[in-house]
Amino acid sequence: MDFIIDKKHEMARSLFADFAQKEVKPLAQEIDETEEFPRATVEKMAKYGFMGIAVPKEYGGQGCDPLTYVMCVEELAKVCGTTAVIVSAHSSLCCDPIMNYGTEEQKQKYLVPLAKGEKLGAFALTEPGAGTDAQGAQTKAVLDESTNEWVLNGSKCFITNGKEADIYVIIAVTDITTDKKGRPKKNFSAFIVEKGTPGFTFGTKEKKMGIRASSTYELIFQDCRIPAENLLGVRGKGFQEAMHTLDGGRIGIAAQALGLGEGAIDRTIEFVKERKQFGRSIAAFQNTQFQLADMATRMQAAQYLVYAAAEAKKNKPRFSVEAAEAKLFAAEAAMAVTTKAVQLHGGYGYTREYDVERMMRDAKITEIYEGTSEVQRMVISGNLLK
Amino acid sequence: MKIVVCIKQVPDTKGGVVFNPDGTLNRAAMLTIMNPDDKAGLEAALRIKEAHPGTTVTVLTMGLPKAEDVLLEAMAMGADDGVLVTDRVLGGADTWATSTTIAGALRNIDYDLIITGRQAIDGDTAQVGPQIAEHLGIPVISYAEDIKVDEAAKTVEVKRQYDDRYHILKANMPCLVTALAELSKEPMYMTPGGIFDAVDQKADRITVWGRKDLKDVDDKDLGLKGSPTKIAKASDKVRKGAGEKVSLDPQASVEYIMGKLNEKHLI
C-alpha cells in the first residue's frame, strides 16, 4: 500500500508543526508536572479545526484525509504526548464510530459539535475485569420498553478524556444468546451517552506514569437511563463496531508513538551537539552517531508503516492488519528510541528538566493502550494463519 | 467592503541567505516564509472580515511563480482569493519598481482598504507601502498598531506607533495602511480544511498577472532596469569585533567615552 505526500500534506504538516512549537511545546513540561488537562490548548485546536480533521465538511469537520489527521497527531506528539492522545481519542474513538455507525440525526446532534471541537469525545470499552479480554465486559444495557429507554449499569476504567469529555461512546452487553455449541454468548451494543445524564458519574482518576495531563477516569453507570435512539449502530453488533473503531484508533496511537520517537530524536540531536565530554561535543563520538542513525532509521520505518495504514483506512473497508502492524512497530520503536534518547542524555536525561524523560514515560503507554503489543501480534498472526 | 493585503514571500531567517552575482537575493534557492509584518496585516484584515460580514480579503504578491505558496498560505488562513504578479521583466526590482508594479496591478482591482506590512525583513526599507499609496493617489497611514473600520462612514481609525507616542489618525477610504507586527494580537494559523480548499481551488482563486496586465505603468519604471537603487555590495551578517574593554573610575570613564565620540566626530 502506497501513500503520496502532496502539497496539501506538506502545508498541513507545517501548520501542525508551527502550532505545536508555539502553542503546545511551551506547556508540555508544566502540564506533565501539574497533571492539569490543557483545556485552553484544546480550545485553540478546536478553533483551527484540529478536532475534526478527517470528518466531512457537512458534519462540521475539515474534510481532510486520514493521513492529514495522522500528521497532526504525529506533530503534536513530537512535543507533547498528552495533547496528541487527547486529539486521537476524541477523533478516532468518538467521532469515527458516530460517523461510521450513526444515524443522520445522531450525526447532526453529536458529530457536528464534536468535529467543530465545541464538544470533546471519549470511548469506553475497557472494564476492571476486561482489558485484552474485551469480551469479558460486564456493563449491561437493558431496554425499558415502558419508557423506551436503555438502562445502563456497570463501570468502565482507564477512559481517556474521561472527566473532560462531553459525549461518550459506551459499549455494553445488551443480549445473551447461545453459540453453536450451546454456550451462552454475550452480544454487545454501542451507545452514545452525554455527560450529565443522571446515573452517570466518575470514579477515581488514574495516577499515571506518563501522558499525565490526559484525563484518565473510571466511568460509573448506576441505572443510567438514555433514550432508545442513542443506540449507536446495530443492536448486538457493538463488539464488531468497537473492534473496527479500535483499528482506526490504533493508527492514531501509532502516530502518537511515531511523534514521540521523532521528538526524542530532535531533542537528542540538540543535546549531543551542545554537551561536551573529553573536550569535544558528544556528537563527535561514533557511539552517538551510530545510535542516532539506528534511532532515525527505526522511526523512518515506523513512519512508512503509519502513513501506509492511514492510506489503507482511506481506501479499504478493513485495515486491521495494517493498523496492528503500524501500532506494534511504531510503539516498540518509540519505546526503544526514547530509552536510547535518555541514555544519550546521560544523567540529565533522567531528570525532569529534559523532555526525553517525559517522552520515555509517555512512550510506554503506546505499547499498552488501544490493544497491547501482544494483541497486535494476535491480530497480525491471526490473519497469517487463518 | 473589499480589502487587499499585499504580502511578500521572504527568506526564512532560519535558512541560509543566497545572493546573486549582482547583489540581489537568489530567492529561488532559499527557504521562505510570509513576511511577518505582512502576516500581521493579513491577520488584521481577517479580523475585520470576521467583524464585518460580507467583507472580502484579496491577497496580492509579486515574485517568482513559487510565491504562489504565500498566497495559498494566506487563503488557508481565510483570505478569499489571491493575485500573483510574476514576469521575468519584473525581476530585480527595487522599491520604486516594485511599488510601480503593484500599483499597476491594484488599478485592476476594486478596494476600500489596502494593507501592506510596514517593511519586509529582507529589505527593511518600509518604502513600498507608502509609495503604492502615492502612485494610486490615496491617503496612507503607516506603522499601524491597531485598525478600526467604520463601514458606514467609510473611514478607518488607526493607532500609529511613533517614537515616543501614539497618533490616532482617521482617513477616508479608499486608503492604505502599513501594518506593524504588533497588529498581531495572538498567532493566527491556517486550518487543515482551508489548506485543502486553497490547493484544490487554486485555479479558480488565484489570478496570475504578468507585465501586460499592469495598468498605466511605463516599462522604464519596471524591473532591474527601472530601479534607481543600485546595490553596491550585499553580504550575510558580518560579525562585529569584540569591542574594547576599559576599567576606569566614573569620572575618567565619562572623559574616555567623550574623547572617543569626539575622535569619531559623532558629537
UniProtKB/TrEMBL annotation, chain A:
In terms of CDD domains, this protein maps to:
SCAD_SBCAD (cd01158)
The cross-references to Gene3D superfamilies, in alphabetical order and at most eight, read: Acyl-CoA dehydrogenase/oxidase, N-terminal domain (1.10.540.10), Butyryl-CoA Dehydrogenase, subunit A, domain 2 (2.40.110.10), Butyryl-CoA Dehydrogenase, subunit A, domain 3 (1.20.140.10)
What are the residue boundaries of the Acyl-CoA dehydrogenase/oxidase N-terminal domain, all occurrences included?
7-118
The Acyl-CoA dehydrogenase/oxidase C-terminal domain extends over 236-384
Q: Which residues form the Acyl-CoA oxidase/dehydrogenase middle domain?
A: 122-224
Q: Which residues cross the membrane?
A: none
Cross-referenced InterPro entries: Acyl-CoA_DH_CS, Acyl-CoA_Oxase/DH_mid-dom, Acyl-CoA_Oxase/DH_mid-dom_sf, AcylCo_DH-like_C, AcylCo_DH/oxidase_C, AcylCoA_DH/ox_N, AcylCoA_DH/ox_N_sf, AcylCoA_DH/oxidase_NM_dom_sf
List UniProt keywords, sorted A-Z: FAD, Flavoprotein, Oxidoreductase
Molecular function terms, GO-annotated: acyl-CoA dehydrogenase activity; flavin adenine dinucleotide binding
Q: Which Pfam families match?
A: Acyl-CoA_dh_1, Acyl-CoA_dh_M, Acyl-CoA_dh_N
The protein's required cofactors: FAD
Superkingdom classification of source: Bacteria
The family line of this record is: Belongs to the acyl-CoA dehydrogenase family.
Q: This chain belongs to which protein, by name?
A: Acyl-CoA dehydrogenase
**Organism of derivation:** Candidatus Weimeria bifida
From TrEMBL, chain B:
A single Gene Ontology MF term assigned here is: electron transfer activity
Q: Which domain of life is it from?
A: Bacteria
Q: Which InterPro entries match?
A: ETF_a/b_N, ETF_b, ETF_beta_N, Rossmann-like_a/b/a_fold
Read off the Pfam families from this record.
Answer: ETF
Which CDD domains does its entry note? ETF_beta
Q: Which residues form the Electron transfer flavoprotein alpha/beta-subunit N-terminal domain?
A: 22-217
- Name listed for the protein in its UniProt record: Electron transfer flavoprotein small subunit
Origin species: Candidatus Weimeria bifida
